[in-house]
Amino acid sequence: MTTTQDTATLPNGLSVEDARAEAARTYELDRTHVFHSWSAQAQIKPMTIVASDGSYVWDGDGNKLLDFSGQLVFTNIGHQHPKVVAAIQAQAAKLCTVAPQHANDARSEAARLIAERTPGELNKIFFTNGGADAVEHAVRMARLHTGRYKVLSRYRSYHGGTDTAINLTGDPRRYPNDYASAGVVHFNGPFLYRSSFHAENEQQESDRALEYLERLIQHEGASSFAAIILESVPGTAGIMVPPPGYLAGVREICDKYGIVMIADEVMAGFGRTGEWFAIQNFGVTPDLITFAKGVTSGYVPLGGVAISSEIAATFDDRAYPGGLTYSGHPLACAAAVATINAMEDEGMVANAKRIGSDVLGPGLRDLAAKHRCVGEVRGLGVFWAVELVADQQTREPLAPYGGSSPAMNSVLAECKQNGLLPFANFNRIHAVPACNITDDEVAEGLRILDAALDVADAAL
């Protein structure tokens, strides 16, 4: 771990001494005034971040950590990319803000760049402030377009924290917010490692999951469903890459019953799986795509919905009943333009694909072969999960669904102690670095993770 003894000045120019003083004040104010999401307020000790650069962040003690978390899986171009920082500064000097009813060049160009990269003819872009409100508006569009209300979403999913989005979510964060009145029907999706369908291979898993889904739709009343929403590759729920043929089969079911197919690409989009949108790995075109996070690499909040021509036409002569004060905010859209152009110019999407297939994926599989605490690794591009288990034969998770465990906590502590900031959820560690991470940085992360998994092995 690179500590304050190894470097006297942080990338933002702060001395270590000044950074420590700032961090102490920051932490004091945070614990006095900030109310944190998804947390019991008295039980948390948030890490203070005082600087970042590329694939690294520095904590309040000046310790340097390799960011394998992407923060919340959104820093797709890494931290402090100079082209995006400069674009935000230039836009602030040119046109800092304007109401959404007025056209502005940053929003127009951002919409063009996004539409060019979507599959099919999803050429209209509705901008939101983030992923949850993108999901809210996509569902609203689908309901108005079809004249139906119910929506299908899978267990082991996350779609956001607002009212509709949290009810669509299929993980434990939904439970305290779900009053069974949102018109949502949940279903089991394919996940061969923990199959709900007693499948023995990916083909069986795909076929049985599709058969089950269609039967559920029939029993619930096919004509009552407006939409099905799926993360193209579920993210927080476990980076469960769908088996071949599954998303194509969902597309066929949607076409058969007149159901709108919504691809939630909030986490998996903008290069993370080695394609601009994760669904492009599977040759499928949805009717709506929700996006956020990587579209600006999180530098300025932005989300949106990419809309098919058929659904967009519904609102040609009928007002769409929705909007946001900051829809298409110039600073956010300028960040999106610069982010997309930087990703294109610097080959970041191709790099993410190569890293996944040649470096990160093989490296994680080597760890799985070495450590008895690893049940499975899975992923694409720079979007990977390491499933930790107490027993490889029974597949008992190292931490319970919806919770943690001392063994899991010890693994995470070891990662941070040795200079790695991972993303963790329940019994999994997610390796989700930036799309422009280098081979050497991946190797560094794998070495630290290897040592941390030794701790888990010793606990078994």
Q: What does the secondary structure layout of this molecule look like, with pairings?
A:
Elements: H1 16-33, E1 49-53, E2 56-59, E3 64-67, H2 70-73, H3 82-94, H4 105-117, E4 124-128, H5 131-146, E5 150-154, H6 163-168, E6 184-187, H7 202-220, E7 225-231, H8 246-257, E8 260-264, E9 288-291, E10 303-307, H9 309-313, H10 330-345, H11 348-370, E11 374-380, E12 383-391, E13 396-397, H12 406-417, E14 420-421, E15 423-425, E16 428-431, H13 439-459
Parallel strand pairs: 3-14, 5-6, 5-7, 7-8, 8-9
Antiparallel strand pairs: 1-2, 2-3, 4-10, 9-10, 11-12, 12-13, 12-16, 15-16
Describe this structure in words.
This protein is of the alpha/beta class. It is about 40% helix and about 15% strand. The protein contains 13 helices and 16 strands. It has a 7-stranded mixed sheet with strand order 4-10-9-8-7-5-6, with helices on both faces. Strands 11, 12, 13, 15 and 16 form a 5-stranded antiparallel sheet that branches. It has a 4-stranded mixed sheet with strand order 1-2-3-14. Strand 11 and strand 12 form a beta hairpin. Helix 3 runs antiparallel to helix 10, helix 11 runs parallel beside helix 13 and helix 12 runs antiparallel to helix 13. The mean pLDDT is about 95.
Q: Can I get a quick summary?
A:
Helix 4 crosses helix 10 and helix 11 packs parallel to helix 13. Helices cover 39% and strands 16% of the residues.
- The secondary-structure class comes to alpha/beta
Distance N terminus to C terminus? Answer: 26 Å
Basic shape: globular
Radius of gyration: 22 Å
Features:
460 residues, alpha/beta, five-stranded antiparallel beta sheet, 13 helices
